[in-house]
Amino acid sequence: MNTPYLQLNGIRKSFGRFEALKGIALEVARGELMVFLGPSGCGKTTLLRIVAGLETQDAGTIVQDGRDISRLPAVDRDYGIVFQSYALFPNLTIDSNVAYGLVNRRDRRESIKGRVRELLTLIGLPDSGLKYPSQLSGGQQQRIALARALAPAPGLLLLDEPLSALDALERVRLRGEIRALQQRLGVTTIMVTHDQEEALSMADRIVVMNQGRIEQIGTPREIYELPTTPFTADFVGKVNVLPAIVEQGGVCRVGTMSLVLGRSDLISGTAVKLYLRPEDIALSMNGAKATNTLPATVAKVEFLGAFCMVGVALDTPGVPPLVLNVPRHAVAEAQLRPGTAVSVCLPPAALRILS
Amino acid sequence: MATAAATLPPPLPAVRRVHHWQERLAQGLLVACCAALILFLFAPLFMILVKSVQDKDGAFVGLLQFQQYFETPALRQSIVNTLWIATAVTGVTVPLAFMYAYALTRSCMPWRGFFRVIALTPILAPSLLSAISFIQWFGTQGLLKGLLGGASIYGPIGIILSSIYATFPHALMIVLTALLLSDGRLYEAAESLRTPTWRKFFTITLPGAKYGLVSAAMVVFSYTVSDFGIPKVIGGNFSVLALDIFKQVIGQQNFNKGAVVSLILLAPVFVAFVVDWIMQGRLQSQFSSRAVPYAPKPKRWFDGAMLAFCVVVALLLLAVLGMAVYTSFIKLWPYDLHFSLRHYTFGLIDAGVIVSFWNSVKMAAATAVFGTMFIFGGAYLLEKTTGMNGVRKLIRLLAAIPMGVPGMVLGLGYILFFNHPDNPLNGLYHTLTILVLSTVVHYYTSSHLTAVTALKALDNEFEAVSASLKVPFYKTFFRVTVPVCLPAILDIGRYLFVNAMVTISAVVFLYAPQTQLASVAILNLDDAGEIGAAAAMATLIVAASSLVCVVYAGVTRLLLTRTQAWRKPSAAG
Amino acid sequence: MMDSKWGRNWKSVVTGWALALLALPAAAQKTELLVYTALETDQIKAYEEAFKKANPNIDVKWVRDSTGVITAKLLAEKANPQADLVVGVSASSLAVFANEGMLQPYAPKGLDKISTQYRDSKNPPDWVGMDVYGAAICFNTVEATKLNLPKPATWEDLTKPVYKGKVVMPNPASSGTGYLDVAGWIQMWGDAKAWKFMDGLHDNIAQYTHSGSKPCRQAGAGEFPIGVSFEYRAVTTKKSGAPIDIIFPTEGLGWDLEASGIMKTTKKVEAARAMMDWLATPDAMQLFAKNFAVLAMPGMAQPLEYVPADYEKRLIKNDFAWSAKNRDKILAEWLKRYDGKSEPK
């Protein structure tokens, strides 16, 4: 059980002079849901298509379940795939769509029927078998596409931006369903998305990609809380960035201000950047003296529902403005509005230093 | 140097995909497709190029024949004649078609569907029909002779009038599409700014239809330049390039000179084709998928004026068709105007000419069936399979060429290529097969574009899904692609059928007596002065094509009703 | 897609091979002759029936078109000839083929009964004539009255200004009839006078048509009152009820022969010779006599309605060898002078 289900090694791919993938290596464990996350053009879809055999890598190997599939055509690989566009066959009923891959295996008619019924029930649309795709909503169609992909019980499920074409509500509902279904069936799954929220909420592990390279691989928590590269920190979640110079004794200087870093292994004089999540900055009205507490003035307050995004300018010159997330009630209590004098606290434990 | 080499990483061995036999099959078919286009399109055209620089005995003479051509004043005159006739026809047809299309799309006049159908009827008739009809109206014995003020219908006037009739529907369809694609929201925005009607016309309508108009102009121009039937019948001694090819090849048996004139004819048509190609591209990109169709509001005087205009045009179009039909049913023009079927019974059936009508029907049916299969299949392989990108590019290029090649040029190329004794395919010469092949190739481009458009509207991932489900691509082709594209497939079939019924330019060089076609028979009957029988044959062609169009409309309607459950405009795709 | 691809290949391959293969067993029992002809369709029917009665094991496949087209086809296919035999095509075209070395000489049985002027002078001849067709003018009397036109009697009359824009004649470059007119005038009058005449005629010509029949048909329909044509078409047009008079100009009539010859490349020499033999029989001549007033075999002709009894005497002296040799030159000169007539008159 320790051998990974899928291993990618040294995958490279160029389109003309454009290098889409610059050497990708990763492993997906059996039963795991792995998300490829990155901005458009980062190569995540190309990577998925290479796994599917729809594109051919220029170099590198792919091993699935102990079998080297690097050179195999799509037809000879073992996976099911779901696309953003659903790609349901419009002229076939839902039943026929789901049975599409089963009929070809010359299964017995009865067993096909049973399997289709089973899958439709599984996705919560047991009565839609005689309808046509165009008679269903987008979310329902995507469920059918999922059922069709799962029908032949593939070893690997590939999801290519499966939720991007749906409206916001449907998207949230379906992502929960897909995740539940995947866990129930235990099918190893790779999903591609550019939506960080989707990635954080669904993945066992996330692969953050940028410009054809892997930035970081980790659990959603690791990716969010402990980004190892500036790109990851910036792409996943909002972040404040402070340029700083390391001084002796676990302290650094930002503009004219000193901050305690909570670690002292850095060489003095190094230029670094400090990353700080907006929700990690504490706000106080009474000037409490915790570490790294600084006086500031509210610049703007943007109402976002449960939270408000509060922009503050530190009173110390030479420091860039910061953004904080403050719960709605706290904003009301403190009567924050532009010009309000406040104190902000940057906890040393929450400061990530990346060079 | 050794160290430098040592520091370089070893070059990665390129990953060579194992190809599944299904992929091999698709690629094999694609290559076969490409080979067919090379064989039946490129090679014949190339032979023309070769022949134009050879003398009768096959010796290389360089540009000598071109030089001789340009030293003959009569032949030089043909170039001037051809160009000014085509310009005049374009200058009249395009504004006329625009006005008509404007009335159909921007007014609330009644019977718009009816007027649309009437305007498209000339497509069903061979171009010779209009020429015959105009002779009957304006010839020495014609009712309307006086309108010409002593000028003769034989010559430029006749050619121009007949060509306007023949090209009108082609221009109309293009302009109509351009006007229909325009965004209704622009008019709403203009309305909210209180823009006067004339200003909307010049700032929204005209710019919106700009590319469509240029494209229509190019199509009309090349049609007129390429058509040889009209000047043959009504041109008198007025010479044009297309006729010169015919005279060189048939009259003087000089294939090499014919090749020279072909190349000269090819030049303006090809320029027009390139302009049109660019314009079509812009027309496509101008179309925004979010555009809202314009819904005109009733305006009494405007709708009335538009209706009057359309009634006049429709009556003129019907008068042309009607005169030909009438001519076919009278005894002896102009001395005995009693109703008679003798042109059908005696002139066509007893004379044995009727065989050519059935040949045409056979040829058109074969063209429609095999042509559609080949063109749609080829477009499918091109758009939906993978690998062999070089071959793909070549096919795309070859598929675009036929639109820029006049039929006569293609036909001459076929003679030169397929009747060559060293060609193993010369068994095709004089068969119905070669007529079918040349006609499919002649009308390839439009059909190919229709197929590609329909295929592009399909979800791009059907093939990927099939592969993941281990279903062979051809199974998905027959189970999904064909049923979904059926309206487009039927449309291609009808287009090929109707054009095969009326085409004359390529086949006039290729028919054998046992494969003589109806359109060629009209030409020969007119040549022999049998105008009544020629009109009768033209009438039969119109009847057959109309029948096919009615059947097509019926089948399409039935199909759309029966598949309404899944074929919804809102269908996700 | 597979279907269309294979359908296409299948079709072309099978048609090609089927033609070749089917021909073999058929040839074992019956010979099939491929004959190129310019005869009228209704004439062909009668001739074929009679021929088959005499030669039951020879089948004939006819390839029919106008003289100009048939001539063009034969020359086009020179490198790869299809026909076994040419029947009923103008002698001036056959003389061209003979010059090109496309024919094989053969003396049919009964050649001695054929007039020497209606066959190739070589022995054995490359071609043998069937019957004569010659120039005639169709004159629409109804339109003439309306337009107050006098009835012409000679070729020279046609150059009178009163006929300006009233005359149509076939284009010699595309029509056999047109060529026999031009060749006739030149042989009758010599180069200088003939071209001067044609210059004058050209001023009166409304149109040069592509076929020899059309001028008479147009005269018959009143489209143009005077059509220079040939006597067979003139007679049929008059019989169809058109108000025309047939005029045989007094200076002399250009003419040509419907003639036949065997292609050098034929593999069915025996059958082809049988056909040539039959064409020279009195039986065949009797059939020709129904359509033509002058036959290659003297003494067989019957009087024809609307054709004068002394028709043969009105024909000029015609040298086919000269006509064939000068064909290219004459046509080039004619085209140079008249083909660019940009405005019809």
Give a brief outline of the structure.
Chain A has helices at 44-52, 94-103, 109-122, 138-150, 168-185, 196-202, 220-225, 230-235, 328-334, and strands at 6-15, 18-28, 33-37, 59-64, 67-68, 80-83, 156-160, 188-193, 205-210, 213-218, 240-247, 251-254, 257-260, 271-276, 282-284, 293-303, 307-314, 322-327, 341-345, 352-354. Chain A is of the alpha+beta class and 355 residues long.
Topology of chain C as a string of helices (H) and strands (E): HEHEHEHEEHEHHEHEHEEHHEHHH
The assembly state of the depicted protein chains is heterotrimer
Low-confidence stretches of chain A: none
Q: Give the CATH architecture of the largest domain in chain A.
A: 3-Layer(aba) Sandwich
Helix percent of chain C reads: 40-55%
Overall body shape of chain C:
globular
Mean pLDDT of chain C: 86
Number of domains of chain A: 2
CATH class of the largest domain in chain A: Alpha Beta
**Individual helix count of chain A:** 9
CATH topology (fold) name of the largest domain in chain A: Rossmann fold
Distance between the termini of chain A: 37 Å
